[in-house]
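Troubleshooting log. The previous run stalled partway through. Resubmitting the same three chains, unchanged.
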Amino acid sequence: MSKQKATPSHDGNVAHDGAHAHEHPPLSFWRKYVFSTDHKVIGIQFLFTALFFFTLGGLLALLIRTQLAWPWEEIPVIGSLFYAESGGIMLPENYLALMTMHGTIMIFFFIIPVLSGAFGNFLIPLMIGARDMAFPVLNMLSYWVIVPAFLVLLAAFFVEGGPPAAGWTSYAPLSALPDMVPGSGTGQTLWLVSLILVGTSSIMGAINYITTIVMLRAKGLTMFRLPMTIWALFITAVLVTLATPVLASALIMLLLDRTIGTHFFLPDGGGHPVMWQHIFWFYSHPAVYIMILPAMGMASDIIACFARKPLFGYRPMVYSIMAIAGLGFIVWGHHMFVSGMNPTLGLAFMTSTMMIALPSAIKTFNWLGTIWRGDLHLTAPMFNALAFVSTFVIGGLSGVFAAATPVDIFIQDTYWIVGHIHYVLFGGSLFGVFAAIQYWFPKMFGRMMDDRLGKWHFFLTFISFNLVFFPMFILGAYGMPRRVADPYEYQLFAPLQPLNQFMTISAYVLGASQLILGYNFIWALVRGPKAAQNPWYANTLEWVAPSPPPHGNFETIPVVYRGPYEYASPLVTADYLPQHQQLDGLEPAVETKPVQKTAISPASR
Amino acid sequence: MGVFENVSTYGAQVDSLYLLVLIVTGVAFFLVEGVLIYFLIRYRHREGHRAMYTHGNRRVEIVWTVIPGFMLFGLAVYQYSAWTQIKIDRPNEAEAVVLSLEAEQFEWYAAYPGSDGELGTDDDIGSPVNVIHVPVNQPVIIRLTARDVLHSFFVPVLRIKQDAIPGTTIPVWFEATQPGEYEIVCAELCGLGHYRMRAFLTVESETEFQAWLAEMAAR
Amino acid sequence: MTVTYPTEANEQPFPGLAIQKFLMWLFLASEVMFFTGLIVAYIVIRFNSSSWPVVAEVLNVPLVAANTFILICSSVTMVLAFDAFERGQLERGRYFLIATMVLGIIFLSIQAIEWDELIGHGIVASTNLFGATFYTLTGFHGAHVTGGVLWILGVTIAAFRGHYGENPIGVEVLGLYWHFVDLVWIILFTIVYLI
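Second attempt completed without errors. Output:
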């Protein structure tokens, strides 16, 4: 007879019903807020940490832009703070460190943690009607494994030689040989250790998410009644589980080359530099889908909600996400067309890469189909979600040029690629994050953000974003290379400086616009109006729980009767019909009186 | 591309492919964004108005899957020959000017075969650092490698780019159509001096080229 | 340890499947991908190499073959341990757990001897790519075996405290991991020692 613990652990979905079915002695501050096993707390921990890194990564970007506008000139204020030894002027090693850390931080410490770590954690149990993740302790550990990763990477700023300077892609031999560039010393090693920890944290989270989504859905919530947010997080978790370990193997081999003298990637000992690229991109291409799929899922849910209309083409949308993920494993060579890889492979990768545009195109058409004949409430989350669609389209279309191998010969390693990646990652994922923050803020914190401020933030961001990044396609068409501290050394690119200056000033506006969101967020946290349980009149299960949900989430676990997109349903007078709502006959079973004035109200008839 | 001059035999093909993709994606862009903006305005919330209740349309899904699918696949296959011509095929070495080009932090070192006609022998003719000369209207094959880390040989006006890998020699070919002096850009991050790893390609007549070669040999 | 299966409040896509087992399969999938990264690198390196040592001359293939057999036996004892717990034969189960652990330790010891011999021949990880790949592959495998042995130790101690009588899921999940480690070894043995 196994012993019953006095305080039952939260491992697994122990059959609870009723609010607070488990008796707890009150948790200490540390157990409740720091080492919490509650998915909502962990999600919020990831959120705040990710937002910190977003800010840091953004500031690094502004410095990069400053150099590209006015190379080798004294930088006001920041120059005397960080570059005092060189008279307030950025040095080449600073530039390389900046762009390496900008990319690394944005990818591994912002986008992936905010989408999977923050929203994945917060939303999955709530949207599937579970009390918590399948393995809450594992979940807590996944955050506390990423914290040392953060500290290790931040430490790289302060070690001798400075941060790594081989780009976030860390190609060998540059990254494998400590003398090849400053920062290639301790900084690079710390980078490798940090990423190994981040990967571990990601995998821990992913296997927890998959188990939770498959095994702990509420009764009636079949897989094809899941909201797109969950489908996307689910498939992203599968990608993380299968692709991230391959990155780990590459990072370890590079670490061994640097520390114990192996020659995996060093030709002097018979090694293969291009092999680094193959193994790295085998992970890093799926990684870009890890960075966009959750945003796609969330955009689908947000758009359907504010269009008051079912998602157009739910099954095609699900299959498209699967296709993107699957195809994502066979396109990695498109990062390597001019790398010296066997050129015949270029033909194969061009074909698979062109084809991967297809499921994304299908999704775009379905988003348009969703808003067609809708009843569009243009709130701040809706604007951001629609901006996701419009900028993602530009990002995707610009990718077709890169997929066209003869064209890629020219645009590879130029600013075209930088424009492409920022349209899909900033335009795509980041607008998705802005939408998600403002949409789920009421559920997370029990208060409402200000919609008008949200719109100001949106418009300023959207306009300045396009002014910064669209010209990058022009720069790329001129062949201006990336990762170059002073492109105007070349006569070819000297005429591009004024355009770069314009982009930099737009970047400052873009950066400053984020202060509006930051202010809105913090103001709402302390003084925002209290949120109703379902302020957006949405259908999915997280809105059944109170705002914010207590430990255990639901008074009673809901039972699900339908899919998540029954907006404008003819069965009820209200313009939404929640998944868990039981219908006796055709009586409207939902509240029609708004609890408070919100941006939208249920349409009557 | 088209933004500046093209002096390469295959450059026009590359530029026209770029233009083709530009047209296709441009049409898609204006269509999609136009529809998006139109819908935003046309279907914005009005009192008393209810959205249409529909979960989708199978026929429309098939149409907008199959048509773009064929277009994308066609776009890929259409470009096979251009890629093959530039990266897989190569002119006959006997009919081309062959030289070796080695990239090292942060300079380019070219060498030409001497009177024995072979590269890599003692009578090779070294070019001054960061200088390459080639004759106009003749195929050129560069045996590209690096001495330390990855670099990349990028000549925008020739529409050619190829990474240089230490420990491997990669053949790169082109045929220049116009005399002039053109910049060579290093297009793969190689360290501190990556931004100034600039070299110069001089394209000149056959006579001038031979004269230059003789002058280099004499040094 | 509390065992959890989805209940009537859940959809129950796989009735009777414990969530711990599901999690272990997912974890093993990630582990497979990790070893795949290393193995693919090894294959690429080896078959592009013009100067690979003759494996039979540098490595003690018969000894390691015996070692492979020992590891396979430990998988057998692991199955027998789980089987015993399932039938409620707790004492038998505990003995088989100990047997598994002992066999695992013997495997590691013979691996250590292998390494020692190879170092004695002057081949370390930095010597050449044979060394680099050999030590990396066998080293990470050995690390996984070590982790497994420690886990068996923990499970054995718990078994002595009376666990697994009600529900041997903890032993079952450990068994899955152990079989995986064994399977990886069989693959490594084949591609490093035999081919």
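Takeaways: Chain A has three domains: 40-291, 297-522, 532-605. The radius of gyration of chain A is 24 Å.
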